[in-house]
Amino acid sequence: MNASVSPFIDLDWDAFDPWRIQPFKHRLVDHPLLQTEQLVELGKRCRGTTRWYSFNSDITAGTDFDDASDLFPTKLSHVDSLKDISNAKAWVLLRHIQADPLYRELVDAVINPMQSQIQRKDPGLYYRAGWIFSASPNTATPFHIDRSHVFLFQVRGTKTVYVWDAEDTEVCSDRARDGFHMRHDLSRAPWHEEFRQRAHVFTLSPGTGVYMPLTSPHMVETSQEASTTISFTYNTDATRRNARVHVMREMLHRIGMKPPAYGKNQAFDFAAFAAASAIAVCHGPGGHPPTCPSLVKKSEYAVAD
Ligand SMILES: [Fe+2]
């Protein structure tokens, strides 16, 4: 056990596997930047930017994440919802907090001490980012996948996190991941209630968290109390390889070809990665948005998702 390398997180780094879901404990609960007053101030600084997103508590696990804000608008502004999240009947995300100088320090303070431990198993960490989720009681986060590895820290309240393995193609197919990496499109990843039966289920309370590898499907439900959660995300050489293979698979499907299942044919995956890398360098398909900018340039901090 090599647990005390970070001031904020307790994790068995010797057992850490970047492609396995793993719970952990942390010490961020009392951090001054995660208290309500500071979150409201951050929310104010996000006004007029794309660095916030919200919807109301009528959302369901199966709502399309990208349509959620239009389909389920909040009654209050995102700032007023943050001021009284217990009663706001809202879900508010403050995105890309690393763009805020104050919160960039927090992102660095958490990731820097973990970086060498992560890179022992998963080299080439880049594109770091932070996200703060505030949600009213009995509010879901729709079923979705993300384009980075995720460390999710529970700060206040309790919530149930349903998460499925990164290689679970019953819950989220290769085709869904192909389209997601190419276009940030979740339409091929519909929710089904029966997925709950095969999930890893974590009841997170303050001071606990869970690590979720790239494109591990997840869905979250808050309890009877309001919740505050912060996640720290990043990409690595391996996530970029994975995403580029999926982008190439999407291109091949478009011209009528049927690539082998992801991870089942090493020669194919290697060739797909090489081809996608060359096309990305030339800013062809997969080399510009809506494909994640992390596939093209290895910036230290995330610039978009
Ligand atoms: Fe997520």
Q: How would you describe what is shown here?
A:
This protein is α+β, with helices and mostly antiparallel strands. It has two domains: 9-237, Jelly Rolls (Sandwich), CATH 2.60.120.650; 238-295, no CATH class. Helix content is 28%, strand content 23%. The protein is built from seven helices and twelve strands. The strands form two sheets. The protein has an eight-stranded antiparallel sheet with strand order 1-2-10-7-12-5-4-3. It has a four-stranded antiparallel sheet with strand order 6-11-8-9, with no helix packed on it. Helix 5 (174-183) crosses helix 6 (237-254) and helix 6 crosses helix 7. The chain is globular. The model has no long low-confidence stretch (mean pLDDT 95). The structure holds fe (ii) ion.
